[in-house]
Structures are given as structure tokens and as C-alpha cells.
Amino acid sequence: MNRPASVEKMVEVIKKLPGVGPKMAERLSYHILKIPESEVGELLTAIQKARQIIKSCSFCYNLSEQDPCPICSDISREKHIVCVVETPQDLIAVSRVKEYRGLYFVLGGALSPLEAIGPNDIRIDKLIKRLKNDSISEVIIATDTDSKGEITAVYLAEIIKKLNIKVTRLGYGLPVGGDIEYADEVTISRAIAGRKEM
Amino acid sequence: MNRPASVEKMVEVIKKLPGVGPKMAERLSYHILKIPESEVGELLTAIQKARQIIKSCSFCYNLSEQDPCPICSDISREKHIVCVVETPQDLIAVSRVKEYRGLYFVLGGALSPLEAIGPNDIRIDKLIKRLKNDSISEVIIATDTDSKGEITAVYLAEIIKKLNIKVTRLGYGLPVGGDIEYADEVTISRAIAGRKEM
Questions:
Q1: N or C end of chain B, less CB within 10 A?
Q2: What is the ipTM of this complex?
Q3: Does residue A83 sit in the same domain as residue A138?
Q4: Are A56 and A123 in contact (CB under 8 A)?
Q5: Are residues A31 and A83 in the same domain?
Q6: Residues 52-71 of chain A whose Cβ lies under 8 A from any Cβ of chain B
Q7: Is A101's Cβ below 8 Å from some Cβ in B?
Q8: What is the pLDDT of residues A76-126, one digit of tens each?
Q9: A43 and B6 in contact by Cβ < 8 A?
């Protein structure tokens, strides 16, 4: 016997989610068939509601229930400095740092020659337009430190410098709380280059 | 900034799914916010449809779109032999073995003294009732080979023998295609005990 068609379909659709393999999709599907109706309702409602309510902020492309988002509409923030991140999740991570009081811009990904993701596939044009219109004095590039994030940072820096705007990149070094034994060579080399007098 | 409330709710609900940790729940949530409406629709519809259509077969408790399920309603199958499994997924695994032409019974779990899962928490009464009413000559116990499955098998064997029904357990030994080097001691010991003349 095969799985009933409707279970097969559910497994197939769940398998499309990122990080979910065939075994996990099967396990999740049978779990969903087994839980009380109220729990399924809660799951479906949470997904539908988030999809309905969440918008992209038209200034920074942060995900938010309001447009402009709470950060862009916060008049106490410094308007002349913009931190560029790849995703809304990255924005939330940076925003936990209370010292940073500037604004943000979510690129929506990173350049990737290998995956054929070019400048037109992420919001580079929109970032440049915003930098031209608003009076921005500094752009902090906070893309990931993998090769895609690096390529994107270099590409952006080149364009932004031409606008006579200061461009900075988050500092490299050892992660706080990390064990030097497990740090890779490149990180240690960057940490040495960025060493500070005590 | 924290995550918007509706995203937070979605992450929290998704985190309840088995095998999904906080990071994975966040990743899935942002993925669901990003994909086209049609894909979200497909996901929600597949879940709702499976929940609506799938029933528990009232003879064997297999999950099926019909009641009785295709196996119980297949008149060509041997009605005097029942294979007892823990879950509908186990039933599908066993049913891939074409040689077995008997029926099934899904217990809906296994006994677990540690987790306080006793005989009344799985379908032991229903199994006994069925064995008493139908003329069953053999019960093959195909519960898992972990300690819960073992306890369940021993418990069931004791009750079923009293009904003067033959009880068998799936044979132990080396899994086919496996490497002896990686087989554990207990498995090898069982494989030696169950050795066959060539």
C-alpha cells in the first residue's frame, strides 16, 4: 500500500520547505494528521494572519505590521546613517544592539555569481535611489561574512563611494564567547589585523 | 526591535512541530512570508484537505481515504492473520513486502512505563476485541525493536497466547545491505542465534 493520495500531496508540499527532507516531511504530515483540530486551526490561522498583516516597509523593506515600520517612523533615530542588511532576520539581529540608533535597508539577498543572482535581483537600485534622495552621511554594510555577503559588500562600497558617502563594514574578529581553538585561520588572521591596544 | 507580533506567533506555533527547533521555526516562518501567495495556498490547502479526507479505518486504524481502508476491504487478502504495528507509517513499510498478504492492526503507539503510556493509552483493548470476534489464527507483532516496542511485544504476546492464537515476532538479525563493522553487539548476537544453514 502507498500513502493515501491526500497524505502524499501534503508530504510533497511540506518537502518543498527549506531544510525539510523526505523523512521530516513524512513525520510532520503524520503529526498534523494526529493532533487535535484546534492545533491545526492554530497553525493555519497563524500562517494566514501573518501573511495578511505583514507588509514590507516602503522605506527600508523591513517586514512589519505597519508601513513605515516602527524603526523608520521613530523620529528619535538618526536619519543620516543607514545599515544595509541582507534579510529582515539580519535587521532584527543588528537592532538588538542598543548603541546603533540609525536606520536600515534590507537588500533582500546577496549577489551570487554562481547562482546567477545579479544586482537587479536584489534591491541595489532602490538603495542607491534612497541614498541619493535622503541626506545620508554613512552606510554601514552588514551583509553576511560568507563569500556572497563579501562580494555584495565590495560591489556596494564601490557604487556608494561614488556618491561621496562614507562606507563602513562591520569589524571582523573573534566572536565573543568563542573558543580560539575552534576559530578558523581566516578569522584569527582578521582578528590579529584588527587587534586593539589594551 | 523584536519580531512583529504576528510573525512571533507564527514562529511559536511552528516551533511546536516535532523536530523543529527555534532557528528552524524562524527560517520556515520567514520563508512562508516570502514565497508567492499561490505557494502558501498550496501548503494550507494540502493540510486542510488531508485533514478533511483522511479517516481512521474502523477495523485496523490505518489512515485512509476510505473506511474500511483498501487493505481491510481487499477480499483477496488472508483474513486469519494480523500484523500488529505501532503507527500507520509502520504499516506502509511492512505493506511494501509483497509476500505478506494478511491484515493489519495499528496500535497507535507503544507502551512506555517511563512516559506513563499504559495499555489504556494505546489500542490494546480494541485489538483483543477484534482477535476475539474474528477468527484469527496468527498475530505477527511488528512493533519497533527499541525498548518500548519490546515491552509492548512481550505484553501483547502474553495476552494473545491466552486466546489460543499463535503469536510471532519479526525476526532479528543484520539489516540487509548493512556493514557488520557497524552493527551493534546485540544485533550480532541475535543474528548468530537466528543463523540459517546455507
A1: C
A2: 0.82
A3: yes
A4: no
A5: no
A6: 53-54, 63-65, 70-71
A7: no
A8: 999 999 999 999 999 988 888 888 899 999 999 999 999 999 999 999 999
A9: no
